[in-house]
Amino acid sequence: MSENIKIVENATCTFCGCVCDDMHLHVDVEEKKIVKAKNACILGRAWFSEHTIEENAPAAMIDGKEVSIEDAIEEAAQTLVNAKFPITYGLSDTTCEAQRQAVAITDIIRGNIDTTTSVCHGPTGLAFQGVGESTSTLGEVKNRADLVIYWGGNPAESHPRHFGRYAVTPKGMFIPGGKKDRTVVLVDVRKTKSAPVADIFIQPKPGKDFEILWALRALVKGKTISADIEEETGVSLEVLQDLTEKMKNCRFGVLFFGMGLTMTRGRHFNSGALLALATDLNEFTHFVAKPVRGHGNVTGADNVVSWQTGYPFGVNFSRGFPRFNPGEFTTVDTLSNGHADAALIIASDPGSNFPKRAIEHLKSIPIVVLDTKQTDTSKDAHVAFRTSTYGINTSGTVYRMDDVPITLRPAFESPFPDDEKILTGIRKRVHELMLARHSANGAIGEAKVAAPL
Amino acid sequence: MPLHLKLHTTPEVPLEAECICPDRMRGLSIDDINRLIVFHGNREMHLADFFECSGNNDGDIRVAGDLVNVKHVGSTMSFGLITIEGDIGVHAGAAMSGGKILIEGNASDWLAPEMLGGEIEVRGNAGHLVGSGYRGSTVGMQGGEIFIHGNVKNETGHCMRRGLIVVGGTSGDFTGVNMLAGTIIVIGEMGTRTGAGMKRGSIISLTKTSILPTFSLACNYSPVFIKQYLHYLLKKGYDIDSKIINGHFERWCGDAVELNRGEVLLYAD
């Protein structure tokens, strides 16, 4: 370790959706390495300390051969413009500024844009549209919530600071005793490492979340539920009645839910049932529901795609206007059904975690990849860009899981360009190519101005 | 002689062909029909680039070839007949208000979403969301009849308001979810969570199924209207045992978290 240490105060960790912005980073400027990350959780420490720069790695490659960034941008633009059903996917581990460029590219090339939301909290996005959302910031939860329910998640291992920074132990304005003033409930099919934190642990049978949520809704509305529910769900009527009373009588309740709810049988109806339960409870007290999001800026991806297209994910532009249809325009479906004929993958690795059929099709089409490291997807890429890491090397904006935007403070510079710069280059080039194509077809207006191209 | 459309070039990417519809072809010559616009992914092309067109344009259309990648056939149709000689892609018969679509093979997802009237018959299976509303819509099918002789997947009749859906085989989960009114008849087995969130309407099953805790058993009876329906289905080519036609049904009322005015009727004998 050199003596040239730089301190970056109030830096932001972009590992998970908590986006903790109270990091104190000790950066070895010569070695280009973060040697200490004060306030970080175990995941955040690994995120910062294991970040290294591979100086000798090529910044851009075409079919595995090193090329200039300009040549790679030209090839990427040509690939995307020539496709009939190009897809854009990923986006949850990059800045909002880069996400904006990705939406613009997809709009120009009349492609299909989707984010990793579709394989995690996509069902929640559907439920928001169908049911609505009673929501709040994590600051409100910290200062007001006296009943905290976690459903289908294990924050002790997936979001270690969620308990300590936002929802369980912190002392708030109206919760002076911290954990002592709160009741914590965990609903999960397994007794995870989060269970010891909970005052009440409820363990339903796998795949019975919907039935339990539906029964809770009925109990909240004063309807009768048969004691047979224990046989069906593994949870007794007495436990449900007790939880109902606690929910109705708290001052501020919050339901946090994870993929144990959204990605099990019932999916968007599970999320919808939970959101509807929170809405029902507002007849008695103040109750909110929040999804616990995974990737650092997956919430930003939802926000950016929503305010640019009107829909959060699974959006298609092939007719020149945005259309939303999860199941048809989500990436697993466009790949598994063999529809996509080119792919722009940004900060994601579907080649390692998608279903086999989707991966097989992905490998059969030209792929343009932007990633900070080599991945299974980038190994098969036609055009691959190596980019800098957001939050560590790159500034920009990300959204915390409660839709609060946070500005990044980078620790040190990277020799590689950031996603926004590459995507801006591709966006400009595809715009020129599309205008030229329209001009060649006798277009008027803006296309005519671009005629010399 | 009907108008024959034969697929001569298989689309590489999805082909959106809502122009295959009697309403859009009304009064057009064969040349005009050949020039109708289809979308091959993001490219605007002509119908003739994919289909060979022949016969008389009299409102009777027969479509042949591998059509699993062809979407929106018969969307918004209001009269005439479309016969699909094989399988068909998503959104067939979307928002149709009249006429008939006969699918001799299988139908994909979103068969007749937000249908207003007319008839669809599927000799094979259908996918998810038959007669449903689109995402974000609070109202699905509002009229007409859908007859499926095979199986269907999840969310059949999602938020349907009126009309009839008949499934000869099995149905997936959430049959009749958020249903507002109308009738769904499933001859085979149903998945779980039938009628979740339903306000009114009838879901009839000729086999036992699991019932949500928010439904309550009202009675065991032999309603005349079910006999009428089952006789109608016999005429439509469904195979139904006469003892079922005259049998008893359990009437489950629900969904209690909504109006509690819907019913799930399960064959009880």
For this entry, give a set of tags.
heterodimer, A: 453 residues, alpha/beta, Rossmann fold, Dimethylsulfoxide Reductase, domain 2, 3 domains, nine-stranded mixed β-sheet, five-stranded parallel β-sheet, B: 269 residues, 13-stranded mixed β-sheet, four-stranded mixed β-sheet, 4 helices, 9% helix
Give a short overview.
The complex is a heterodimer of chains A (453) and B (269). Chain A is of the alpha/beta class.
Which secondary structure elements does this structure contain, and how are they paired or packed?
The complex is a heterodimer of chains A (453) and B (269).
Chain A: E1 5-11, E2 23-28, E3 33-38, H1 42-49, E4 60-62, E5 65-66, H2 69-82, E6 86-90, H3 96-108, E7 112-115, H4 122-131, H5 138-144, E8 147-151, H6 155-158, H7 161-167, E9 183-187, E10 200-202, H8 209-220, H9 229-233, H10 237-249, E11 252-257, H11 259-262, H12 268-281, E12 286-291, H13 298-309, E13 315-316, E14 323-324, H14 331-336, E15 342-346, H15 350-353, H16 356-363, E16 367-371, H17 376-379, E17 383-386, E18 397-399, E19 405-407, H18 419-440, H19 446-449
Parallel strand pairs in A: 6-7, 6-15, 8-9, 8-11, 9-10, 11-12, 15-16, 16-17
Antiparallel strand pairs in A: 1-2, 2-3, 4-5, 4-17, 7-13, 13-14, 18-19
Helix pairs in contact in A: 2-18, 3-13, 3-18, 4-12, 8-10, 8-12
Chain B: E1 3-7, E2 15-16, H1 22-25, H2 30-34, E3 37-40, E4 43-46, E5 51-55, E6 60-64, E7 70-71, E8 81-85, E9 100-103, E10 119-122, E11 145-148, E12 164-167, E13 183-186, E14 202-205, E15 216-221, H3 224-235, H4 242-245, E16 249-254, E17 262-267
Parallel strand pairs in B: 1-6, 2-7, 6-8, 8-9, 9-10, 10-11, 11-12, 12-13, 13-14, 14-17
Antiparallel strand pairs in B: 1-5, 2-3, 3-4, 15-16, 16-17
